[in-house]
Amino acid sequence: NYVSWYDSLRFANWLHNGQGAGDTEDGAYDMSLGSSVVRKAGAQVWLPSEDEWYKAAYHKNDGVTGNYFLYPTSSDTVPSNALVDPDPGNNATFDNTIGSPYHRTEVGAHENSVSPYDTFDMGGNVWEWNEALIYGSNRGLRGGSYVGNVYGLSSSYRFNDNPGFGNADIGFRVASVPVACPS
Question: Which burial class, exposed, middle or buried, applies to 74 when counting CB atoms under 10 A from its CB (0-12, 13-18, 19+)?
Fold first, then answer.
């Protein structure tokens, strides 16, 4: 959290460049392009596009192209924000699930509330930047946050903000090329 859209692209560049190359201004993204920056062909690690993020969060992964859940907890039922162990499923971090000073849960705290693609916490915790250009120079955010209500988790809800802005309830996730398993 507390990262701008540009910060998230620089982090993707750092990962793309092997984490030690030191160059965060070029890699998956050429940062010299400012607000016109786009993902380069051949990127190995990147910020998900709106479509990539949406599919990872909501697609039922059942072999049917048009089948999507309403919530990123593999459910069409409104999730609760219960933080219990073991997680009974269909839970997410929103409406201040846990209070100050931390507010956010650890990755996988809702272990039985994963998306059909086994991604954790795509609903709640922090809004996540994606590559979408919404209007003007504002970039897309998805997933809701720990301070928001359950409606931010819905598949139909989109949010956006200034790409230079970051605060406590904005973060990101990266996507990458799958690594082939040795035979």
Answer: buried
Do residues 48 and 56 touch, judged by C-beta distance below 8 A?
yes
6-50 per-position pLDDT tens digit: 999 999 999 999 887 668 999 999 999 998 999 999 999 999 999
CA distance 152 to 166: 18
Taking residue 87's Cβ as centre, other Cβ atoms within 10 Å add up to: 17
User: pLDDT tens-digit profile of 126-158?
Assistant: 999 999 999 899 999 999 999 999 999 999 999
SS3 label, residue 120: coil
The tokens of 64 are what? Answer: 């049917």
Q: Are 140 and 160 in contact (CB under 8 A)?
A: yes
For β-strands 159-161 and 139-142, DSSP reports them as: antiparallel
Give the separation between CA 76 and CA 91, rounded to whole angstroms: 12
Question: Could you tell me where the DSSP H helices lie in the chain?
Answer: 5-16, 50-58
